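Thread: "does anyone have the structure for this chain?"

Original post by V.I.:
We have the sequence but no experimental structure in hand. Need at least a predicted one for the grant figures.
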Amino acid sequence: QLQLVESGGGLVQPGGSLRLSCVASGFTFRDYSMSWWRQAPGKEGELVAGISYRCLSKHYGPSVQGRFTVSRDNDRNTVYLQMNNLKPEDTAVYCCAGPSESWGQGTQGTVSS
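Reply from O.Q.:
Generated one for you, tokens below.
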């Protein structure tokens, strides 16, 4: 059964960092592109970052470009999202997405002083 489990969220002050992880199971992870999305209260979901299955291609949403970095470890079936210089507007539930419209349960990231 395909499963995605995120972790690493928390409370951080503006300017701080968080590193999110998403562990995948139930499919051949190395064969699929993965992405990170977020949704803040009262706002539509937003694509944060994506990474191709061989890491040859990465893309970022305009609001996080230059601050966030997506990576993956195909041996650990894990995709990461390193978030630096966080701002209050980055506060959201962060979810990873995989094949067949699969989603994790999400992890909350809160940026507040």
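V.I.: this helps a lot. The longest strand covers residues 18-25.
O.Q.: and Residues 39 and 67 are 18 Å apart (CA to CA).
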